[in-house]
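#structure-requests
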Amino acid sequence: MRTWLLAVDGSPNGDRAADYAARWARRLRVDEVVVCNVQPLGSYRAYALNREQMLADADERAAQAAAHARMRLRFAGIPHRLVTGLDDPAESIVAAARSAHAGEIVLGSRGLSTLGHLALGSVAYKVVHLADVPVTVAGGPHREPAPPDDNGDGAHRILLALDGSAHSERAARYVVALADAGVPIEATLLNVQPPLLAGEVSRLVSAETLEALHREAGEAALAPARRLLAGHDVRVEARVASGDAGETIAQVADDAACTRIVMGARGLGKLATLVLGSVAYKVVQLATRPVTLVR
């Protein structure tokens, strides 16, 4: 049984995450969606002497926050159930996912906090840090391709961003698992090399040589994923590009009309010890479609 944990908070981005789950869960062979809303305990300090009223009000607010998601899932005919909590939201979301044996967490990029201008809210960032399963982050507004008809053979279009790191290899294995579950997949494999340099380097090395070196490095980064996908029923297109990695990944996903972007949560950069690398963070900020982060 394949389960998603859908975390919602009543925000527009949370609703977009719910819309994504409702549109694609069935096509991605998801059997059940657990809708989760956790009310932050700090919001209920005034109820310290009336625990029963506090829990009742928290449940009511949770139901209101989850109403859009439940309506969309019900309309799509996707089995689902609601779980609520009153605690630290990120820790409770991850705990609920583990309890439900969820294979993936889906949530909005940011919620209703006063830091709504950030590309990735504190709850989403902490969930990515704590979760031991892939996390799909939905921002917006999305321009997703129309979902295929249930009787058609429309494929799930994935932009798989790769840099040769262990995290990107695990992202490729995530795509393999989808294919093995019977999901028709079209995968665009993308490696982005740094932009070609002018000035001193160009005086020493020709542009043609630099392009050849970039192509060689890019193909080397794509090679492990190519081998992984070769034995599975996945239609693959490979690209090596040059430029700003975050901007290029988001733009290629748009150009290829991908359903979503799949990538490692961090890569080979100098700050690889961070839970979320700078490229992944920028992709979440710029992407017009959901981004699945694999650790």
